Amino acid sequence: MSKNTIQIFDTTLRDGEQVPGCKLNTEQKVVIAKQLDLLGVNVIEAGFPVSSPGDFQSVEAISEIVKNATVCGLTRAVENDIKVAAEALKTAKTPRIHTGIGTSDSHIKFKFKSNRDAIIDRAFEAVKYAKSFVEDVEFYAEDAGRTENEYLARVCEAAIKAGATVLNIPDTTGYCLPSEYGAKIKYLKENVKGIENAILSCHCHNDLGLATANSIEGVINGARQIECTINGIGERAGNTALEEVVMVLKQHPYLNLDTSINTKHLYGISQLVSENMGIYTQPNKAIVGANAFAHSSGIHQDGVIKNRETYEIIDPKDVGVTESAIVLTARSGRAALAYRAKNVGYELTKLQLDDVYANFLSFADRKKEINDHDIHQIIETSKVYQ
Ligand code: KIV
Ligand code: ZN
């Protein structure tokens, strides 16, 4: 069976940049956009052009330099937003306008003080207007996660009638369970008239820690695009992490879902975004955290030294990490000590290892982690070495 390719829509520079307290300048955004293009993402959401002159400038600059990916600009369902986005995107090889409106009852009632039918009219008009500037128009139904499915299907139908090529179904508040989100995508796939003319896109937030699981359920149920950010950065608890969904699909080939991402660049771009944003990545972050390929307990270390696959489901090289780390702590065993000692130049006999290990344990009980310098000291001060 041939694999279905899932489009990766990166929104690090738009939704990701909405992290409280973070701001990237145009120069930084251009550097990141170039790397995203090299990484192989299909779409780069470069910003929200009408929001500020700086954002307009960034979208314009990114449109000029991106060679492969589609460049996308966000708008509300407002004519001026759309006109300004089209202007910012005018040099992009393949521009996309991403327009939309809130569709849940709370958005309709409290945000727009409007009604369901009027929202459908606005959705239709916004897509139609965007279509007068560019061929590729994506429509988002904000808060789709809490929008009743039947009504959501009507909104989607109107957007398709107006020419939308992609329908974004955001779980804006990160509320859905994976089963609910998957069922929503399935419902739309089966009930929206004209759905064969557009693709469904997952845009999940991580308020309950479910963004990756929801996006994966979405594509299993028929969506063909995932919107995500590097390191999962974004407003509140963040967005779906790009590196996570890409590696989930890669490590589960039986799903027959694939991406065009060059995974060897994942670690490098994670570092680049983290440095430029000034947000450090939690050590236990899946795929790109400092501890993602570090082993510290004796049982695990012994297994990994014998064969990496005992405790690793991903080859670190596949995501751009040079090698797994064997971290020496008081929980480490003889195998790990012998391995690290060998790396710094000591080939220990069994007898020597017993002696050095006893010295190591008393050292490790006083220090959290043993580095190469400590290993020299431990070995040189051990009985057998004196
Ligand atoms: O989370 C969301 O609903 C969004 C839309 C503006 C696409 O980011
Ligand atoms: Zn969002």
Integer-rounded radius of gyration: 25 Å
Per DSSP, the total helix count is 14
Distance between the termini: 65 Å
Helix content class: 40-55%
Which stretches of 5+ consecutive residues score pLDDT under 50? none
Strand count, sense and barrel status of the largest sheet are:
8 strands, parallel, barrel
Q: Which structural class do the helices and strands define?
A: alpha/beta
How would you spell out the order of helices and strands?
EEHEHEHEHHEHEHEHEHEHEHEHHH
The whole-number mean of residue pLDDT values reads 96
Total DSSP E strands: 12
Overall spatial form? elongated
Bound molecules: 3-methyl-2-oxobutanoic acid, zinc ion
How much of the sequence lies in strands comes to 5-15%
The largest sheet has its strands arranged as 2-3-4-5-6-7-8-9
Pathway: Amino-acid biosynthesis; L-leucine biosynthesis; L-leucine from 3-methyl-2-oxobutanoate: step 1/4
GO molecular function: 2-isopropylmalate synthase activity
Family: Belongs to the alpha-IPM synthase/homocitrate synthase family. LeuA type 1 subfamily.
Protein name: 2-isopropylmalate synthase
